[in-house]
């Protein structure tokens, strides 16, 4: 019995010694697992923080890209203004002081202008050697006499341009020649004035081309005054007139080149309403 108990005790001891190491191993394993679990909780947080956020299964929020607003276009620059072309210098009109003393007659004729009164036929002559066409000058004089404010339009006569058999002659002459022709009638024109002669009218080339310093209009308008004044003498108006009052139109029969005396320069015998422009008789 003792031997059996001793053997049993040996067996029990032997079994106890086997169980204890196993329990110890299990205990160690469980302790280690708990410790590991504890470490994972702490270390996991640190690791997660170090590695960044864990991936999720949610769809990522799309990033909105802001398209920059287009910059407003600057207003178009105004086109540079073109500088006006400089006016060509005006050709200075030169008038010769003297000429050949001979004349060319315009080979031109026309229909009578005017509706009543005595018919007066006239020729136009231009001194030789001057830069003036006799034919073109004749056409201009014809237009002057046909003007609605001139003599013919108001029954003071009819006028017809002819090349021969004329009742009077209109001559365009250089200043020296004009002086010589006017002097035959006892008239002093001083190289500046026009005159009426026994056979017609002498027009100073200087006045025809340049006009008058006392006349407000252009030389082309002043030519109306020359013809209306001298032809006025031809139709019987022998006297000159003076200014009818300050600011009023000067009569065509006034020697306007000698001064206006307060009047406004005027080239026509009649005003725009058809009234005759008259003034005090002076000579």
Automatic annotation (TrEMBL):
TM spans (from-to): none
InterPro entries per record: DUF3152
Compositional bias ranges of the Polar residues kind: 95-107
Residues covered by region (Disordered): 45-114
Domain DUF3152 as annotated: residue spans: 94-263
Skewed-composition ranges (Pro residues): 69-78
Signal peptide: none
Compositional bias of kind Low complexity: 53-68
Domain of life (superkingdom): Bacteria
Name this protein carries in UniProt: DUF3152 domain-containing protein
Organism: Streptomyces nymphaeiformis
């Amino acid at each position: 019995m003792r031997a059996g108990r001793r053997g049993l005790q040996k067996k029990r001891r032997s079994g106890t010694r086997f169980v204890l190491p196993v329990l110890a191993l299990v205990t160690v394993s469980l302790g280690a697992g708990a410790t590991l679990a504890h470490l994972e909780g702490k270390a996991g947080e640190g690791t997660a923080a170090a590695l960044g956020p864990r991936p999720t299964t949610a769809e990522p929020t799309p990033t909105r890209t802001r398209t920059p607003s287009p910059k407003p276009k600057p207003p178009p620059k105004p086109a540079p203004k073109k500088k006006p072309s400089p006016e060509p210098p005006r050709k200075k009109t030169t008038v010769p002081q003297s000429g050949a003393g001979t004349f060319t007659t315009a080979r031109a004729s026309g229909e009578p202008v005017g509706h009543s009164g005595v018919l007066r036929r006239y020729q136009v002559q231009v001194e030789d050697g001057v830069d003036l066409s006799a034919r073109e000058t004749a056409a201009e004089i014809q237009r002057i006499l046909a003007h609605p404010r001139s003599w013919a339009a108001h029954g003071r006569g009819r006028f017809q341009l002819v090349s021969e058999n004329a009742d009077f002659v209109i001559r365009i002459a250089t200043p020296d020649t004009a002086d010589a022709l006017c002097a035959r009638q006892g008239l002093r024109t001083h190289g500046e004035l026009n005159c009426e002669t026994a056979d017609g009218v002498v027009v100073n080339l200087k006045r025809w081309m340049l006009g008058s310093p006392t006349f407000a209009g252009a030389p082309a308008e002043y030519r109306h005054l020359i013809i209306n004044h001298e032809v006025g003498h031809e139709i019987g108006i022998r006297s000159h007139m003076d200014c009818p009052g300050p600011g009023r139109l000067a009569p065509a029969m006034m020697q306007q080149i000698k001064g206006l005396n307060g009047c406004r320069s005027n080239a026509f015998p009649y005003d725009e309403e058809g009234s005759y422009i008259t003034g005090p008789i002076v000579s």
